[in-house]
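hiii so my PI (J.) wants the whole complex modelled not just the main chain, which honestly fair. so below is everything: two entries, each one labled with what it is. i double checked the lines twice but i was tired so who knows lol
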Amino acid sequence: MQLRIPGPTPLPDEVLQAMKRQMINHRGPQFAEMFHEVTATLKEMFQTKGDLLILTGSGTGGMEASIVNTLSPGDKVLSLSNGAFGERFADIAEAFGAQVERLRFEWGRAVDPQAVRQALSHDTGIKAVLVTHNETSTGVTNDLASISAVVREFEKLLLVDAISSLGAIDLPVDAWGCDVVITGSQKAWMAPPGLAMVSVSERAWQAHAQARMPRCYWDFARAKRFLEKGQTPWTPALSTIYALAAALELLQREGLKNIVARHARVGAKAREGVKSLGLSLFPEDSYASNTVTAVRAPEGLDVKRLLKSLREEYNTILAGGQQRLEGKIFRIGHLGYVNEDDIEAVLEALRVALPQAGFNG
Amino acid sequence: MQLRIPGPTPLPDEVLQAMKRQMINHRGPQFAEMFHEVTATLKEMFQTKGDLLILTGSGTGGMEASIVNTLSPGDKVLSLSNGAFGERFADIAEAFGAQVERLRFEWGRAVDPQAVRQALSHDTGIKAVLVTHNETSTGVTNDLASISAVVREFEKLLLVDAISSLGAIDLPVDAWGCDVVITGSQKAWMAPPGLAMVSVSERAWQAHAQARMPRCYWDFARAKRFLEKGQTPWTPALSTIYALAAALELLQREGLKNIVARHARVGAKAREGVKSLGLSLFPEDSYASNTVTAVRAPEGLDVKRLLKSLREEYNTILAGGQQRLEGKIFRIGHLGYVNEDDIEAVLEALRVALPQAGFNG
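here's the output for the full assembly
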């Protein structure tokens, strides 16, 4: 089975085996040791000396956490949005009472740092900027290095949804001055879903001290206080932490540089392969993501039929388009436990399935 | 290893094996089938024909969800509190802007339904009542049948923390007219932590339609809309759902009545055993819980030392007291995958460890 959606991703056997470990006391010394170790390794992968918190919930929970911990109702927020997940980030901020200005870019195009500069010059009341590093819905990786540089110029708080990038695409959290960065266990991390991992900068803590959005479950201060004794405020997803610990061991062995290089190779192979089948990418080429490839559905192709036949006849699971992109694109996930052979297998399946779904190249 | 804390609990081998199943597409037909089945079985165990939602998060997340989905800032709420978890429920409501009136009972004693009636007669502005069915911190099971009858009399919304009772202690959700009932996967359910399961009554949906507390991740309406197509709004803790599915199969085979009877036997055995060692219960006898036994630390007993020696020398993990009960009690968890032999083993370990920790009966 080739599960090639942008998360959950297939898990290495070592990780699956770790999942069947018996329960332990989440307030005991064994847990504390493991939790400290996982936290320390994640900090290396985040390239941060700031705080790193592990929350039980999905990535979207981490996004909600980043907002309610740093903002107050009425705060002005600039949302940089070029896809479904950018919109989601803005929606969450709005749900909690932020005054959200949405700087929107065409889906499939990247966020333009110059436009961000203009927006920030224009409106000095903005407190925080929300950005999606890798927009999973369109297969675009935004130029976070440039965006964060602009945000730093204006000394705004920068909240980054790096759910489908971190651990696969380079994101030096401290060097780029990102204040809260969120990822999810089921993405690059080769672990099952159920954990959100977030980094918190000193500036984010200062914002936290002023932030009046209501929160309890997601509260960073509680998480930090408990982390000091190797615990979590609420019972954590223990087995998923076992899995994450096992996966991090593999990732550390490979090394972050090699992991990033592998994703670059795999991404390039996916893009070239797709083009060689006569298809074209949905995003602009220069921002195409190394973790997910979005393919434009050509005239005549029935995406639903394609995905069904890939699944039922070729053991290959790809993702469709979300929201307004439903039926207009399909997506190949290639993050986490993936190498060139996996992409080759997907391309072979596509080669036979595409004509059956109405596309003849 | 005897892990006898009130959750996480030891897992049966069938459940551990289920955890190592490979990832699948959480938006595909296989997931939908499993998710519908798990939901249907949970509804039987909740004894409800209302809605049943599975949220990725810990039980406390489910508590937060119950509040933000049914209340508005400024709403008056009556909290019935006789322990740390009752206080937590009230704290969450307060964090989100509810006006909380705390009707407190001595820790170790049960909530008095008569006092609830008085409080509700006295203050007609109350919109909802928060209650802990089984107060894990003190080992008390409140008389929810009587409490819910009073709350129904006054037609208030009833939110029930049943995290450590449901699936082990009888709680007929519909018959007792409970509006939102919360439990957690790592308690009676013989699954790892990471999922909160909540029932939602028709009255709770009516409250939801008016409720203005901010929410996104925990929103019941989104969860219900996605459940209709066998999905969750955000990526769910997939492996934990595998485990829950496997555990529910075992639980269904045993049957709810037998499960409740087993917990009653095990609870009685724990209480008798503890007394036979010359110890006394912390809670009043008639409300002592069938899922957790809280034992008063007698004069001379060093609880910390006891727990350490049980852990290091006798492979037995018990829980200490929380907050103001630290050092004053210890607790034996007996819920989920547990039978009389497990209690026997704990009692044997206590018999030798107690004198070493300063208690000579």
